[in-house]
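Task: sequence design from structure.
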């Protein structure tokens, strides 16, 4: 029975209880023992993964990205994490930036720091599914990652100038025409300030 649950990428304390059919005290002692001998990893309160799963088929390669959109659902990877992947940020960033319709939150475990920011439901768009083995997770497009980044950086713009835009240390030359066309679609759902910021970005749009 334990072999079955060891192959799961993510399981709750309730799932462990159902699989093992143990009383609460025995289960608590088992969890403590497994964590102590490092065969079980606590991901957040009440959620775990067996190390054996990560040692199979290179599962650890994408596990952190899967975990990012699993610990709090619904959610998708975006902002700095995705922009760095596209080499659009000139600064190195650490941790995972995730959008969610749930409240803003942060989770830290041995896989990293996962920063969740709450976004309104009509802007919870612009992402696609990725998968590896039994794992599935969600990642923003290049345009949506940029939009989310600017959206949550609006307070850094007081006069909405090119100098303020440069202060975000973005390499906007990475964006292609189709990316900007997608970006403009999100502006229809955003505050007017986002359109004003976009106007000073047009020098890159028109290249």
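Answer:
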């Amino acid at each position: 029975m334990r072999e079955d649950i060891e192959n799961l990428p993510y399981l709750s304390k309730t799932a462990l209880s159902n699989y093992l059919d143990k009383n609460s005290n025995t289960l608590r002692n088992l969890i403590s023992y497994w964590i102590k001998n490092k065969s079980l990893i606590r991901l957040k309160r009440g959620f775990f993964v067996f190390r054996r799963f990560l040692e199979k088929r290179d599962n650890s390669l994408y596990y952190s990205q899967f975990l990012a959109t699993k610990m709090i659902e619904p959610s998708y990877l975006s902002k700095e994490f995705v922009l760095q992947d596209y080499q659009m940020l000139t600064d190195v960033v650490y941790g995972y930036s995730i959008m969610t319709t749930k409240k803003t939150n942060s989770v830290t475990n041995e896989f990293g720091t996962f920063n969740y920011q709450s976004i309104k439901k009509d802007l919870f768009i612009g992402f696609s599914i990725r998968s590896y083995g039994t794992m599935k997770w969600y990642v923003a497009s290049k345009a949506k990652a940029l939009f989310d980044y600017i959206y949550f950086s609006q307070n850094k713009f007081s006069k909405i100038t090119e100098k303020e835009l440069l202060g975000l240390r973005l390499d906007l030359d990475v964006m292609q025409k189709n990316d900007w066309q997608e970006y403009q679609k999100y502006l229809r759902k955003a505050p007017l300030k986002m359109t004003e910021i976009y106007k000073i970005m047009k020098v890159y749009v028109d290249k």
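The chain has a mean pLDDT of 92.
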